[in-house]
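Supplementary Methods, section 5.1.

A reviewer requested that the exact input to the structure prediction be made available. We therefore reproduce it here, unchanged from the version used in the analyses.
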Amino acid sequence: MPALRAIALVGLLASCGKKPNGPPPEITGLAAVPASAEVVIAADVPRVAASPLVSRAVDQLLLRDPALQMSWQKLQQSCKIDPTQIQHLVLAMGPHAGTQPGTGPVLMVATGKLSETEFAQCVRGLVGQGSGSLNVKEASGHTMYEARDGNRVVYFSFSRADTVVLGTDEAFVLDAIGSGKKALDNPDLARWIELADQRAPLWAAGKVDPRVGAHLARITTGQISAGPVALALTFDPTAGAKATLAAVMVNPQDAKALESFGNANKGMLGYAAQARSLGTIVDKFKIAADGSIVRFSIDLSIDEVNQVISALDGKAPAAQDAAPPK
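The structure derived from this sequence is encoded token-by-token as follows.
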């Protein structure tokens, strides 16, 4: 759940403000992500904000999660947050604890027009409303803040004047603000990140839990020997929906088998989509294998996105009655 709420915050901050393309990725927070991270998600907030698709998704998210909506309203009212101050957000997830996937430490790096003094005062005010506290200490040449509110603890520090690093795991935050190895020093993670377009409004890359891969192997009825070891996503929602998902397979044979399996099921999906007049949309979904990489891609115009939303919001047309017997 911490990871889902952190990802939701990306969308919330992205729902306001529109500005042109930002600086290249090497100064947007990736340099703060520790080498131990297994998943990285990056968003160019002003560009993502221009998307009606994202705005609608955020609205739906808030409607379905009243607790998240209240938290966001409280944050806005208490801190007077202007989302246009945030230029880039990077989320990173470390290795999961125990046997449960998705439970690793989560880190958020926000870059923009930020003030350490104002941010700390904001957090102090939030936790000070109850039995919470804000403690300060020096770490790796930076000021480390520990905000406690009941059983919840958040650590944050400014790695530089315009970049704040937040997380629920102190060691993960210390790794981020320290001088140790970072994400691009991890050869596997660096290779997966290269598969995504880092200049896209939204991109992600990371390791796939082996159990997820094993499940995919089962649903393909053994056509592939193992599932993907990593995924890389590039998503541009600014003028419709343009997305590419690259699956890193164990070998070219599995990649080709997954391509065949996907295209076979694409035909069945297209047949079912005809009921909602979405057959042409399914036709735009492409699957292609290149060595050990399988790429799933789609490029929809804004009109096509609206067509999909309309079909999903509405009801399927009623089935035709059979003709009466003669």
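The mean pLDDT is 79. These observations are discussed further in the main text.
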